[in-house]
Design goal:
Strand content: 25-35%
Distance between the termini: 36 Å
Strand order of the largest sheet: 4-1-9-10-11-12-13-14
Order of helices and strands: EEEHEEHEEEHEHEHEHHEEEHHH
Number of strands: 14
CATH class: Alpha Beta
Helix content: 25-40%
Shape: globular
Length: 332
C-alpha cells in the first residue's frame, strides 16, 4: 500500500441488521431472533480491516440504537466510521434469515425500503476529498439498485474514484429481487466500463450480460466488453449435509489463472463472498493474482465455518488452510 494515502480502501453502501432464529429454527415459529450486522458493502472493509488494512465506510445510519449497534459493530472490526452520517428519525434496513438443513430451502426476507442508507445521494459526501485519500474504491451491484438516489451516488462515487486515481473494484452481486435484468444492465454497464477489478459469476454473466461459453470465454468476453484490468469468476456448489465447495478464476491482461478448489462445511454462507474478495485484494497486493486466488479460496472456506458476516481470521490461519496445514485437532 502507498504511504501517501490514508486509506487502503473506501467502500460505499448500506449495512443491514440480520435477524434469524437460533440454529435451524423457522421464522414462522420464532420467539427469539439473533441480531447480527451484515451487508456486502460493509463486510468487505471490515474483513480487510481484520487483515490489517486501513478502511473506511461511507453510508447513512439512523440516529437510534439500531444504527448505533451497526456503527459500533463495524468500528469494533477496525473500520473508520468517521464519515458515516446519522439520520434523525431514520430507519435501519433489515434482513430476516432462516437457516435450513436439507431438504428445506434457506430463506431471506428483506425490509430495506425507506432505510436511512436508501436516501444516500450524490451530494451527501465530498467524493474528491475522501477518495483522494484512498488506494481502492469499492461498491457493488446491490447498492445502486436500492433507490434512484443510490444509483446516482454510485455513479458519482465511481467517477470521482477514477479521477482520484483509485483502483475501482466492483462485485456485480445481482439481486433479482431488487431490479429486473433490463434495468440492472442499463445501470451497471456504464459503471463497469470504469472498473479496474470486476467480480462476477456464470449466472450473472449469462443472465445479465448475455455472455456464453466456458469459463475462459466468459472472462475474456467480460474483459473485452468492459475493459477491466482484472476479471474474476467465482463458483459455489452446495451438497447435502451442509457441505460446499468453491472455485475461482481470474483473467489479468491475457493471462488466465485458476485457484485450487476448496471444500468445507457450511455453518453460515451469508457474507462469505465478501470474505473471498477481501482475501483476494489483500493477497494480490502482496503476491499477485495467482496467489490471491489460492488465498481467497482458503478465506472463503474458513468464512463458511462461523456465524456472522465478518469472521475474525488471521492471514496465518488462511495460509494454513491454503497450504493444507490446518489441523482439525483441538488447540490446547
Amino acid at each position: 500500500m502507498s504511504a501517501k494515502r490514508r486509506y487502503d480502501l473506501v467502500s460505499l453502501g448500506e449495512p443491514l441488521l440480520r435477524l434469524s432464529p437460533p440454529g435451524f429454527g423457522q421464522l414462522r415459529a420464532a420467539s427469539t431472533l439473533e441480531i447480527r450486522p451484515c451487508g456486502a458493502q460493509a463486510n468487505l472493509p471490515a474483513n480487510l480491516a481484520v487483515l490489517g488494512w486501513q478502511t473506511a465506510l461511507l453510508t447513512k445510519l439512523p440516529d437510534n440504537p439500531l444504527g448505533q449497534l451497526v456503527f459500533e459493530a463495524y468500528r469494533s472490526h477496525g473500520v473508520d466510521v468517521a464519515w458515516v452520517r446519522s439520520v434523525p428519525g431514520g430507519k435501519m434496513g433489515l434482513t430476516f434469515v432462516e437457516f435450513a438443513a436439507a431438504p428445506r430451502t434457506p430463506l431471506a426476507i428483506y425490509d430495506r425500503v425507506g432505510s436511512a442508507a436508501s436516501t444516500i445521494g450524490p451530494e451527501d459526501f465530498d467524493w474528491p476529498a475522501i477518495l483522494s485519500q484512498a488506494e481502492f474504491a469499492y461498491t457493488d451491484g446491490i447498492f445502486p439498485a436500492i433507490s434512484p438516489s443510490c444509483l446516482a451516488a454510485t455513479q458519482a462515487f465511481v467517477s470521482a474514484a477514477r479521477k482520484a486515481g483509485c483502483t475501482v473494484v466492483l462485485d456485480v452481486n445481482y439481486r433479482r429481487s431488487l431490479w429486473p435484468v433490463e434495468q440492472a444492465r442499463a445501470a451497471l454497464e456504464p459503471l463497469l466500463e470504469q472498473v479496474d477489478i470486476l467480480v462476477t459469476n456464470r449466472d450473472v454473466s449469462e443472465r445479465l450480460f448475455g455472455l456464453s461459453g466456458d469459463n475462459e470465454a466468459l472472462l475474456r468476453a467480460s474483459a473485452a466488453r468492459f475493459g477491466c484490468k482484472v476479471v474474476c469468476l467465482t463458483s459455489r456448489q452446495t451438497f447435502p449435509g451442509n457441505r460446499g465447495s468453491w472455485q475461482s478464476w481470474a483473467l489479468e491482461g491475457t493471462e488466465l489463472m485458476q485457484g485450487r478448489r476448496q471444500e468445507f462445511d457450511i455453518v453460515d454462507r451469508y457474507g462469505t463472498g465478501d470474505a473471498w474478495l477481501a482475501g483476494f485484494l489483500y493477497a494480490r497486493c502482496l503476491h499477485g493474482t495467482a496467489y490471491a486466488l489460492e488465498f481467497a479460496n482458503a478465506a472463503i472456506a474458513l468464512a463458511h465455518t462461523a456465524f456472522g458476516d465478518v469472521v475474525r481470521m488471521s492471514s496465518e490461519q488462511i495460509e494454513a488452510v491454503m497450504e493444507g496445514r490446518a489441523s482439525l485437532g483441538a488447540q490446547r
